[in-house]
Amino acid sequence: MLSFQAGASIAKQLFPIVGAPATTALRLGISAIIISVLQRPWRTVPPRAAWPVIGLYGVALGTMNFTFYMAIRTIPLGVAVALEFTWPLAVAFLGSRRRADFLWVALAGVGVFFLLPIAPQSTPLDLTGLLFGLAAGLCWALYIVFGQRAGRVHGAAAATWGMLIAALIVVPLGVSLSGVRMLTGRTILLGVLVAVLSSALPYTLEMVGLRRLTARTYGTLMSLDPALATLTGLLVLGERITMGQWLAVAAITVASIGIVSSERRPATH
Predict the structure, then answer these.
(1) 269: how many CB neighbours lie within 10 A of its CB?
(2) CA 133 to chain centre
(3) Does the pLDDT of residue 122 top 60, yes or no?
(4) Number of CB atoms found within 10 A of residue 50's CB
(5) pLDDT tens for residues 90-102?
(6) How does pLDDT run across 134-146, given as a tens digit for each residue?
(7) What angle do the packed helices 243-261 and 77-84 form, to 10 degrees?
């Protein structure tokens, strides 16, 4: 989580230079190059039947990155991450039959309400940024759903092909909007840092951690991401939010922890 938030902080520093779409293009394009060198995807070409779901997975991945960066252009990093968590919470809730989860979702809904411009607060947040944040959450939920399906039909190699498809979608958009400004030495260097910190390093650390953690422990730790993003935004980017917004982020964080921690443990054989 620290690696990912560091990458997002560097990405925000690229926005004034090349814009959010081009920053997304740099991240996904460089990540695709790195993962191609490491994984050599041409050795595991998906069968024809697997392409539709892998394609949807790649589209969800590319759109998720694009909408998230468009969100953090105008709203604080912690708020954007908190909004991202709302749709995966909804997916978890729809698959649940526990009454307690109604309370957790209601708490998350209260948190979202206090982030919207209609809530009583001294510094309303940009509506467009908030909508992009919610859109990023929807794309994250679709990324989870299609990622699971893609993994079932093509294994771990589906992630590599999904990244390549995401890059093919977003890189042309970034190039068309930014042009040669993307190709300076500084932007490429920062783009490499964003790609490594936001993709290559955290995903590798996740794989190591998942071998040693239960799914419940992993999910609970990940639920702390909105709070950690808010602290990173404050300490690294100087982003200050109101007390009401802090409470809203805390409500979404607690709701996420509540849903994850209340999941039943799978039966052992």
Answers:
(1) 3
(2) 10
(3) no
(4) 19
(5) 776 676 667 777 7
(6) 999 999 888 888 8
(7) 30
Q: What are the b/e assignments for 223-255, b being 16+ CB within 10 Å?
A: bebbbbbbebbbebbebebeeebbebbbbbbbb
Instruction: Give CA angle at 207 (157, 250), nearest 5°.
Output: 120
168 Cα distance to chain centroid: 19
Mean pLDDT confidence for 71-83: 91
CA distance 117 to 111: 13
Which residues 6+ apart lie within 8 Å of 44 measured at CB? 154, 155, 157, 160
C-beta separation of 32 from 167 below 8 A: yes
Most confident of 41-45, 67-71, 113-117, 185-189: 67-71
- N- to C-terminal Cα distance for the chain? 33
pLDDT at 267 over 50: no
pLDDT value of residue 186 = 85
Number of Cβ within 10 Å of residue 207's Cβ equals: 10
Mean pLDDT along residues 218-234: 84
H or E, element range at 267: none
Report the b/e string of 161-199 with b at 16+ CB within 10 A: bbbbbbbebbbeebbeebeeebeeeebeebbbbbbbbbb
**Cβ within 8 Å of residue 169, ≥6 positions away:** 58, 59, 62, 63
